[in-house]
Write a structure and sequence with these properties.
The protein has about 290 residues and is an alpha+beta fold. The chain has a 5-stranded mixed sheet with strand order 5-4-6-7-8, sandwiched between helices. Strands 1-2-3 form a 3-stranded antiparallel sheet, with no helix packed on it. It has a two-stranded antiparallel ribbon with strand order 9-14. Strand 2 and strand 3 form a beta hairpin. The protein starts with a strand and ends in a 14-residue tail after the last strand.
Amino acid sequence: MHCGYRGKNTYSNRGGSACVLPEVTPGHCGTAMAAMRAVYLLRSAAPRGRCRGRTYVGFTVDPRRRLRQHNGGRRRGGARRTSGRGPWEMELFVHGFPSDVAALRFEWAWQHPNSSRRLLAPPTRRPREQPISFALRLLPRLLRAPPWSRLPLKIRWLRPPRPALELAPPTHMEEEEGAGLPRLKRKKGRSQELEMDDCGCGLCGETQATPLLRCPRPQCDMAAHPPCLARLFLAPEPQQLLPVGGTCPRCHTHLLWGDLIRRCLGEAEPEEEWAEPDDITIPSSAPT
């Protein structure tokens, strides 16, 4: 399969199908920052009974607040399936999704692996396998399945040391560790007018009324049209339609495509402060 440029932000292959690159318009750049989009995994730390070791997968824009709701029951905003079955611990969350839809589809596939079309051969639960172990076996398989395999996702482990996964996530995905849940510091974004550069694209040299993708390094002045930079990043992967990332043509730093698009759209995740270990109750008595 060959991927060729067909015009404004559009690529096509020999089969005739087309892929449209994310449209970046002047009205989008500089908009308000998007909330964190996270899919999380809970484990019940109930000391005994049928609830001991149960798991729950959910979606949130604030993991710290959501855990508090689950442990507070339905009256505090918790889910029906977690009410009265805790206390709950948050093992990890995956974040960096480009939209709510992408995160919610990931959540649904993690909850229903046998019904999802993303896993061609979903694993079956082994005899006497703990729910948490099965959930962790599913995670890397989902991360390696399209379309999530090409997103700049991050895995945040909350109870170090992190366990060894049966399969490794894609190499471009980061794994983070923390001793507690982050406290997000939200800022109100303000719309800003985009200033078009007269210098034009650093790859094609042309000046168009199109926002440029820029290298995030302060010392680097690389700027390029999205289609031009996508063609450069896709050179080693001619069968793909959208790049995962590539090397900056100016400073040679490795860049992730999704991060460049979000940065141009003004959709960086909110800043965060790490909670101190004694700042929030996270039980440590769950079975391993």
